[in-house]
Specification:
By secondary structure, this protein is an alpha/beta fold. It is built from nine helices and four strands, in the order H-H-H-E-H-E-H-H-H-E-H-E-H. Helices cover 40% and strands 10% of the residues. Helix 2 crosses helix 4 (64-74).
């Protein structure tokens, strides 16, 4: 589903790779982020073969993938999230991230309440229980929970019609306090899954590539 985005970003002068990860019907968290970290380690292990600068790796994703891209940015060095996907001699940290339609605070009151709603089983299925049952899982999965001064630049993109929680307001405020570059794109008239509309897609690419150009390419 991210092939068009990867191809477009590649046309801007990047090595672009799409990855896959286990969904909640296959394995609960932290399986998904462990798969993402294994993919980053694979990129570093194969950097010479594919012309990758292993010191400058960025990530982006949409919705659940946006959450994982944000978590990749903030959870560098969190051993519980590394997993046993192999190549563990290589680092899994990244140097810039843009989360699209992403939740970045899984300990928020909104998500706590959603987890308690039997009619909305997403978070209980993803994390293995309600917030009250497994609060440590929600903390571990929350990008905001892991923030520290060593984290890389992290921005967010959201459709205007999406829930405001995807703006990452509290997370961006924390990033600013830490002196870490951040940003927000709200695309007018766009829904949650905005990469499906060409004008919205183009705005997202411009924002994301601009963020990467500033924090990856320009950081020579």
């Amino acid at each position: 589903g991210m092939t068009a985005l990867a191809q477009t970003i590649a046309s801007k002068g990047y090595v672009a790779v799409t990855i896959t990860y286990r969904l909640r019907d296959e394995a609960i968290f932290p399986a998904a982020i462990q798969d993402c970290k294994a993919a980053v380690r694979w990129l570093r292990a194969n950097a010479e073969k594919y012309g990758i600068d292993k010191k400058k790796i960025g990530a982006t994703g949409m919705s659940a993938g946006g959450h994982l891209a944000a978590l990749l940015a903030t959870s560098g060095g969190v051993k519980e999230l590394e997993g046993a996907g192999g190549l563990n001699d290589y680092r899994s940290d990244i140097q810039a991230s843009v989360g699209a339609g992403a939740q970045s605070d899984l300990e928020s009151e909104r998500i706590q309440n959603l987890s308690r709603d039997p009619a909305d089983p997403f978070y209980t299925g993803f994390l293995g229980g309600t917030f009250d049952q497994v609060p440590a899982q929600y903390a571990l999965a929350s990008p905001r929970h892991h923030l520290d001064e060593k984290d890389p630049p992290l921005a967010f993109a959201s459709g205007e019609l999406d829930d405001a929680s995807t703006h990452g307001d509290a997370t961006r405020a924390d990033l600013e306090k830490l002196g870490i570059a951040t940003g927000l794109l709200v695309i007018p008239g766009a829904p949650h899954g905005f990469t499906g509309g060409q004008p919205w897609f183009d705005q997202f690419v411009e924002f994301t590539v601009g963020f990467f150009d500033t924090h990856l390419k320009a950081a020579e």
